[in-house]
Design a protein that fits this description.
The protein contains 18 helices and 13 strands. It is an alpha/beta fold and about 425 residues long. The protein has 2 domains: about 240 residues, Glycogen Phosphorylase B (Rossmann fold, 3-Layer(aba) Sandwich), CATH 3.40.50; about 170 residues, Rossmann fold, CATH 3.40.50.2000. A 7-stranded parallel beta sheet has the order 3-2-1-4-5-6-7, sandwiched between helices. A 4-stranded parallel beta sheet has the order 10-9-8-11, sandwiched between helices. The protein has a two-stranded parallel ribbon with strand order 12-13.
Length: about 425
Amino acid sequence: MKIAYVTPGHGLQFYCQNCFRDTALLQSLSSLGHKVIKVPMYLPSGMETPADVAVTPVFYGAVNIYLKEKLPFYRSAPVWIERLLDSPSLLHLAAKKSGSTRPTGLEEMTLSMLEGEKGRQASELDHLIQHLRDNVGPDVVHLSNALLLGLAHRLKADLGAGVVCSLQDENEWVDLMGIDYQKKVWKLMAEKAVDVDFFVSASQYYADKTQEQLKLPGDRIKVIHGGIDLEGYEKSTLPFDPPVIGYLCRLSEYFGLDILVDAFMALKEDNRFRDLKLHLTGGYSGDDKPFLNGQMKKIAEHGFKDDVILFDDFCKSSRVAFLKSLTLLSVPVPTGEAFGAYQVEALAAGVPVVQPNVGCYPEFVEKTQGGLIYEPNTGEKLASAMASLLSDPDKIRKLGDQGRRVVLENFSMDHMAKNIAGVYEDVT
């Protein structure tokens, strides 16, 4: 089967679980014998593509689509100018400069992209369709998220291909907009969803959430839990002398780093945990830097600066080494997430997770028996939940062993790829 996988590029300034997922998934699909073509959008992928996966040029280049959104006269620019602005060197420079992850100022462009052939970037869609028709001829096109639904109609109508779309945390972009724009974006995504054969959700929680938002019949959503490439994950010794709690995600207020910092400082005030350490990794955007600096300043003002280590490198080998240093992991995202690959990575190393009772977290912990759920999502409650485990090493080891066993059996990327390939077969 010939599969075109459309996925946004990324500057790799921070831990992007969708980027890691897509790269590993393409490798596993190729290993199953499928012909896989990666179609990067906006920016170069920023990650090393597996050798047996073909890669197209970048479509909807970030510079071009921005100019077409802001400058009406540029929408009829000569092709040679568009190609110049889509040059790899310029897009790599744009990737390095892309410090913002906020939709502020990009609300109208988000809507225009969802309009597809009726949007202000329609000529970009022409280029994409022509290339896929002339050079690829895919049986299935997989859109990596629902913000790309504006492509679906022409992918199906012009190519005759099956269309599959992953659902994962679109709300992290949409819900940061004003309420009027949120309603417009979700309404437009619901209209465009009719051109997709199947949607794939990483959790039942997010399937239920998006089924309502996109007004989808339940039989068009397949729940396929996310997986990771399990190679290399070694079991942590779960240190207690001293114990170490960790955070693996973008170092951002949105993902609850301040909640974890408050919990850490509360635990440090307890004589039982005065030697506790905090390890942080995951990178950050330019928007996140003031917030991160504020958290590190708060830690220093409380006299705990020497007990916190910030790890800059979060490539896979560095993440594996990072996880081996931990006793517990928590990423207390206030609103929860669709999946949270950091949970799978932690349990692959036998490190239990402590997560709030929001999003997919209760579903994941129930399935793996590899952690603890607490509520409400405050630093005080998180500290209490962690204290109950840190004072019971045998329980931590039991949770780590249980979770690791389930993850190794059910959350491998190969397992996920076989299930995704089954969806492709249903489509074709």
